[in-house]
Amino acid sequence: MNVFDQLVSWLSDPDNWTTTLGTPGIPQRLVEHLQYTVVAVLIAALVAIPLGAYIGHTGKGGTVIVGIVNSFRALPELGLLILLVLTMGVLLAVEALTIALVLIAIPPLLAGTYAGVRNVEPAIVDAARGMGMREKEILLRVELPNALPLIFGAVRAATLQVIATASIAAFVSLGGLGRFVIDGYAFREFDQMAGGAVLIAGLAITVELVLAGVQWLVVSPGLRGTRTRSRKRATRLRIDTTTEVTT
Fold first, then answer.
1. Which residue, 44, 80, 109, 159, is the most exposed by fewest CB within 10 angstroms?
2. What are the pLDDT digits (tens) for 152-181?
């Protein structure tokens, strides 16, 4: 039997979809994985989106803050998680995992929000000021709505990264779909390893499609048409910011 046949057999086995002898099945592992992801992305969004919007609107500290936050991308996720668990204790393993995942999600969220707000046409902002809008109103009613395509893109990117990285929870005896990969490797059950990998990939694709649908419903049709141009301008802005940080 080849690997593909073993994978199909494992995924179609009813025992893997139910809790057997206290061992959670696929549905429970899926729920655990989603819980880790949702909590981490929500916390990261509460931190990164307001901060990105503020520095994008005011331009104060943008180069320094974006540069520091982007350095989080270089952190080794597994090493960071193990260090946090050793420091905080096994009983706080979930909190340690959440911290590690939040640090992964913050950079794309902050960079996307910052770039989206800074990318708003200056003429639109000047017109809003000419109408007597206050700075807070300009940010909330003009800049953030126009920045939604890039913000949603950042949310999607951060969510996919967290889904993929949440698999490391199994290394510290937590749940999630990564358990199938780690346990399969430990017991040399390669069909379980392949099944876990497929489930993680399937979850990522499903969540991406759901978020893309939400973005299509929420973002104004006029902004959808300018998404490509916005991304190009945002890319140039990120390059300029990186150059400033380097120099």
1. 80
2. 999 999 999 999 999 999 999 899 999 999
Among 244, 150, 167, which Cα is nearest to 204's?
A: 167
| Structural domain includes residue 196 | yes
3-state secondary structure of 23: strand
Q: Let me know: does 23 contact 169? Beta carbons within 8 Å.
A: no
Give me the number of domains the chain comprises: 1
**Cβ atoms 163, 206 nearer than 8 A:** no
- Residue 23, φ and ψ in degrees, nearest 5: -95, 120
The residue among 143, 145, 119 whose CA lies nearest residue 223 is 145
Range of the domain at 112: 26-246
**CATH code of the domain containing 117:** 1.10.3720.10
pTM of the model: 0.85
Beta carbons within 10 angstroms of residue 230's beta carbon:
20
